[in-house]
Amino acid sequence: MSFRRDKITKPIFSWARGVLPAMSDTEREALEAGDVWWDADLFTGNPDWSKLLKVPQARLTEEEQAFLNGPVDELCAMLDEWKIFWEWRDLPPDVWHFVKREKFFGMIIPKEFGGLGFSPYAHSEVVRKISTRSIAAAVTVMVPNSLGPGELLMRFGTTEQQARWLPRLADGRDIPCFGLTSPEAGSDAASMVDTGVICKGEFEGREVVGLRLNWHKRYITLGPVATLLGLAFKAYDPDHLVGGQEELGITVALIPTNLPGVEIGQRHLPSMQVFQNGPNWGRDVFIPLDYVIGGKERLGQGWKMLMTALAAGRGISLPSLSAAGAAYAARTTGAYARIREQFGISISKFEGVEEPLARIVATAYQLDAARRLTCAALNAGIHPAVISGIMKLHATERMRTAIDDAMDIHGGKAVIDGPQNYLGNLHRAVPVGITVEGANILTRNLIVFGQGAIRAHPFLLDEMNALADTDRERGLTAFDKAFWKHVGHSFRTLFRAFGRSWTFGAFATAPDAGDATPFYRQLSRYSAAFALCADMALLTLGGALKRREMLSARFGDILSELYLLSAALKRWQDEGRQKEDFAALEWCMATGFKTIENRLAEILANLPNRFVAGFLKLVVQPFGARVLGPSDRIVHQCAGIVLEPSAARERLTPDLALLDDDGGFARLERAFKLVAATDAITKPMRAAQLRDWKEAVTKGVITQAEGEQLAAARAAVTGVIEVDDFAPEALSPIYKKSGDVHQFFQELGEQRAAS
C-alpha cells in the first residue's frame, strides 16, 4: 500500500494540487451546507431503486389536515385576488389579523415556543392551497416559514434568543423579513458591502461590546411591514475585541426595526404583485453581540447558516407555489377547453390544443410528484441542498411553461383582466419565482451540477479535501484511499454504461413495477451514462469545468431529469399504479428521456478533448439521440385526463381552493360539470343536426327536462366566456364621470384644430 501511495499516487497528488483552483470560503461553506440524498444514488451510476421506493410517503397528521380544512379554507374564503391586486394593493386588515391570530407565520415554529410545529409537508400543503386563491397571500405566508429569522433561530439561535423571539414570531407580535440582497450583490452575495464593525457602544443605558452596522438592502419581502429584520452583513473586528482576526466574514443578526438608524423604504411593485416588498437601510445602527444569531460564536458563519437554511427553504415554498400553479392551470385549462366551442366542436378536440394541454397535465403530475418526494426527505430531517436547487429551478421554469400554455389555450379569456380572469395575475407573477431565491440562470449554469458534482459524487469531495489538507502527508494518505476507490468506481461505471447503452437498457437494474418497469431500466441506463461522462469531464477539464457553464448546465439538466423522473415513478407507485394516470407518467418519461439524450449528445459534441468525446460516444450513445418524445397517442390520452370529471382529474389537482362563489374559477367549475352532464343529450341532437334545444324538444329528439338542462349548461358557458369591461372613470382618473370620455376627446380635438 505504501508503494502505491509513494510511487504511483504521489505524483498524481502533486499534479492535482497544482491544478486544483483555490476554493473560496463562501464556496466551501456552500458545499458543506445541507445534505446529499437520492442525488448521491443517481451519481453512482447504479441507483438503488428499492431505497427510493421505501421512502415513506409524506402525509399530514390529523392536526395538520384539520388546519388545512379549517383556518386555510377560511382564509381562502376571505381572499379576493382582484380586489387585493387592483383596489387595495395589499391584503386587507382582517386578513392580516387572521393570519397572525391563527399562527400562519408560526407554522414551522415548535409548539413549545407557541408555534404550530407543523412538518415541511404541511407547510408545503398550506402554501400550495393558498397559492390557488391569492399569490399575495401565499407569498406573505410562505416567507416567515422559509428563509428568515424563524428558521435560522430554530437551527442556530441560542436558548435565550429562541425563548425571546420565537414566541413573538409565532403569534404575529413580530413580523419578520430577511435582508440579504443588496444593490451591489444579488446572486453574488459574497460581494455585499454591508458592514458590521465590532466596537463598544451604549445599548439600553449600558456600555457593551457590539456591532455598528451600515447597510442597504432591496427586494426584501415583508420589509415594509417587518418589525424584526434578519440581516446579512460582513463583520470586521479592527480593534480585536473578540479575537485576533480582523475580517470575520458574513454574519447574520436580528435587528428590531425600531432601533435608531434603521430606515424602512417605500414599497417595490414586483411584476405588479402587491405582496409587501421594499428596500431598507441602516445608518450607524448599534446592536449588542447577543443579537448575532447564535451569539458571538457564530460571527463569520452566516453564509453557511444561510446555505443550510436555504437547502430546506428552496425545496418547499416556491416548488409548492409552482406545483399549485401547474395543477391550477391543468384544471382550469382542461375545463375551459372542454366547454369552449369553435367551428361547432369543443376546442379540446383540436390536436393543436391537445398538445399544450397534455404538457400542462404532465407538468402538474411531475411537479407535484417531485414536491411530495422532496417533502418526504425534509420530513425525515434531510436537507438535500442539490435537490432543493433542482426543485426551485425546474419547478418555477416548468410552471412558466404551463402557465404560458394555459394562456395560449384560453386566448382572449385570459388576456382581458378583471374579477372573472382567473389566470392573468398568476401569469404576471411567474417572473418573480424565476428570479428570487437564486436566479434560475445562475442555478442552472453553476449550482445544480457545479455543487452536485462535488457533494453528490461518491469520492470527489474526499479527494478535494485531501488535496487541500495543509498536512501534506495526511492529505496524501487520504487522497490515495479516495483516488483508487474512484478509479475502481469509474471502471465499473464504464462497463456498466457500455453494456446498458448497447442493449438499450434491456438488462439494467429495475424493480418489479408493472407497466413502469421499463422506465426504471432506462433511468438506470442514463444514470450510468451520466456518471461516466461526468467523471471524464472532470478528469479532462478539472477546475476549468466550472467555467464551462454551458457544459455544466447540460450535466445539471440530466441530473435534474433523473431526479424528477424518479419522483414521477415514485408517485405512480405510491398511488397504487393507477391505470388512468399512466399516460401522464408516459408523457413525463418520453419527454425526460428525450431531454437526457439530447443533452448527452450536446455534451459529447462540445467536450474540448475530442478523443475522449469520441470514446464516450462509442460507449454511451453509439446510435445517437433516438428518443423523439411522447407519441400522439400519449398526448391524446394525457390531455384527456382533465377533459371529463373523473378520479384521475381529482388526483391530478387535489386540494385546490375550490370556493362556491361567483368568481371566475367557480363559474368555470360549474359550467364544466353541467356541460359534462349533457353529453348524452347533445349526441342525439348532433345526429339529427340540430343545435336549438327547443326545436329538438319539439321534434321529440330530447325531452323538455333534457332541453332545460342543456339550456342551463349553455347559459353557464356563456357566463364563463364573458370577460369584464369597465367604465372609463373606473380605469383612469382623467375621466371625472361616466360619459366624459367622449366629451374629453371631442374637446381635445377642437383644441388641436384651433391650434
From TrEMBL:
Its cofactor is FAD. InterPro entries: Acyl-CoA_dehydrogenase, Acyl-CoA_Oxase/DH_mid-dom, Acyl-CoA_Oxase/DH_mid-dom_sf, AcylCo_DH-like_C, AcylCo_DH/oxidase_C, AcylCoA_DH/ox_N, AcylCoA_DH/ox_N_sf, AcylCoA_DH/oxidase_NM_dom_sf. It comes from the Bacteria. Residues 454-726 form the Acyl-CoA dehydrogenase C-terminal bacterial-type domain. GO terms for molecular function: flavin adenine dinucleotide binding; long-chain fatty acyl-CoA dehydrogenase activity; medium-chain fatty acyl-CoA dehydrogenase activity. Pathway: Lipid metabolism; fatty acid beta-oxidation. Residues 177-267 form the Acyl-CoA oxidase/dehydrogenase middle domain. GO terms for biological process: fatty acid beta-oxidation using acyl-CoA dehydrogenase. One of its GO terms (cellular component) is cytoplasm. It catalyses: a medium-chain 2,3-saturated fatty acyl-CoA + oxidized [electron-transfer flavoprotein] + H(+) = a medium-chain (2E)-enoyl-CoA + reduced [electron-transfer flavoprotein]; a long-chain 2,3-saturated fatty acyl-CoA + oxidized [electron-transfer flavoprotein] + H(+) = a long-chain (2E)-enoyl-CoA + reduced [electron-transfer flavoprotein]. Residues 300-447 form the Acyl-CoA dehydrogenase/oxidase C-terminal domain. It is an enzyme of class 1 (oxidoreductase). Its EC number is 1.3.8.7, 1.3.8.8. Residues 79-172 form the Acyl-CoA dehydrogenase/oxidase N-terminal domain. Belongs to the acyl-CoA dehydrogenase family. This is Acyl-coenzyme A dehydrogenase. It comes from Bradyrhizobium daqingense. The lineage of its organism: Bacteria, Pseudomonadati, Pseudomonadota, Alphaproteobacteria, Hyphomicrobiales.
